[in-house]
Amino acid sequence: MNSLKSTLTFSFKAVVLVCCFVTATTIRLIAQGTGYLEVVGSVLQDSKGLEGSDIFVMKGNEKVDQISTNAGGKFIVNLELNSNYSIIFSKSGNISKTVEVDTKVPEESKDQIFPINLK
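Below the sequence we write its predicted structure tokens.
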């Protein structure tokens, strides 16, 4: 009987911990807002899409994303709001380019999705 009681006590504690974690995560997400800046673009060379260009997304000194362009030179990157980013475009044999992006928005707009197109 004691074994069953301790198993139930452990299970109850585990459920309570999971519930606390889910609640804390949900509150954090709500506080941050669900909006973002959607950067859709193309890397072009001689007016044609450049496949395989590397795109590095930096937030300060931290690399937060790295992708490559598709066959048409297209890419999509979603950036959290209220931050500053550097988007670095690079391809072997070409000159790298950097675009600075400030995603700061008013508090009342933190749940919106803001699209932007880059070429």
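The chain is about 25% helix and 40% strand.
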